[in-house]
Write a structure and sequence with these properties.
Largest sheet: none
Shape: rod-shaped
Number of strands: 0
Helix content: over 70%
Radius of gyration: 23 Å
Number of helices: 5
Order of helices and strands: HHHHH
Length: 177
């Protein structure tokens, strides 16, 4: 008879626990989505500056024509039609190519006095720095979310609530040295 009194109490505690887990998952997912929106705005800002920077690079670094053309091909995707995970994959590749070109510029110590070149390089470098910072925060929230999702009750709740599974923004910078 005592067990019948304890069973509802245990059930209520379990429901509170599930609610807490669901709320935590939703909050982390909202943080992930907010950081993705910030990252996406930076991607769009970089996206809009690529054609001008490529025009400048064609004159400054004709020997890097292949990488510059790859950058243009990546840019020619219709950005608005891409899904979030596709945006991340395309931007990962753009980041790798841009970092390769920028590191080559730094290694060759190209000192051009062209204002257009200097402004373009500084703008791209500034955006790249911001992207690196926001992507670290984004990846941190994604990892926290994935970790919480793997805890007891997390998998169950994510299936029932049909919570999305965001992907990481991972960039392995090519070493051109």
């Amino acid at each position: 008879m005592k067990y019948f009194l304890i069973l509802p109490f245990i059930l209520i505690l379990w429901l509170f626990y599930l609610y807490y887990r669901w709320k935590t998952l939703k909050q982390l997912l909202e943080k992930v989505q907010q950081k993705f929106r910030e990252l996406n705005l930076l991607f769009l800002e970089r996206w809009n500056r690529i054609p001008g920077f490529v025009r400048i690079l064609r004159t400054v670094m004709p020997e890097e024509r292949v990488k510059i053309e790859e950058l243009l091909l990546l840019h020619n995707h219709i950005y608005d039609r891409l899904q979030d995970d596709e945006k991340i994959k395309v931007n990962e590749r753009i980041t790798i190519v841009l970092h390769g070109i920028l590191s080559k510029i730094n290694l060759q110590e190209i000192n051009l006095t062209s204002n257009a070149y200097q402004d373009g390089k500084e703008n791209i470098m500034e955006i790249e720095t911001k992207i690196a910072s926001v992507s670290r925060e984004y990846n941190s929230f994604v990892l926290q979310y994935q970790k919480k999702k793997q805890t007891f009750g997390g998998r169950f709740l994510s299936r029932i609530a049909n919570l999305e599974d965001p992907c990481l923004f991972l960039v392995e910078i090519e070493d051109n040295g």
